[in-house]
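Incident log, structure service

09:12 report received: a user says their structure output differs between two submissions of the same chain.
09:20 pulled the input from the user's history:
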Amino acid sequence: MSSENQQFSRQDLLADLEKGWKHYLSRLQELSEEEQARYAQEQGFSRIPDVLVHIFVWWERSMQRSLMILDGHSLPHTDVDAFNAEMVEQYQQWTRQAVEEKFAITLTTLERFLIDLPETALEHERIQLWLRIDAHDHYEDHRLPNELALD
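09:34 re-ran on a clean worker, output below:
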C-alpha cells in the first residue's frame, strides 16, 4: 500500500521502525547465502552489504536534511543515483560485520532522532516526506522475502 498521501505521526514512524527495520538484520540471517545473493541482485546491488549501506546512508541523509531545514538552511540538490553509487563505493572495504554494526547503530540513532524531533517538525512537508520514506516506504521497497508488509 502506498503511503504517499498519508500523514505519519512520530508514533507511526517509531512503530514502523519497530515492526520492520528492527528485525531486518535477524531476518536477513534467516535466509540462505543463495537467497541473500538473489535478494541483493533483485535489489540492484552486487552484495548484501551494499543494500545495507544504501539503507543507512539515506537514514543519515534524511536526519541531516531535516536538521538543516529546521535550522532554516536551504538544501543542495542531490543526484540520487550518483549519491547511491558514491556511498556504496565509500563502504566497499568495510567487512559485512562492520556494515551490519553501522546499520544497527544508525537505526538506533534514527529512532532517537524521531523521539527527540519536535512534533511540529513533522508538519513540514519535506521532513514528513523524508522520514515517511525512511521508516515506511523504503522498508517496503527493500523488504526481505521472509518479512511481512508493514500495512
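09:41 both user submissions now match this output. Likely a transient worker issue. Closing.
09:42 reviewer note: The chain has a mean pLDDT of 92. The two ends are 7 Å apart (CA to CA).
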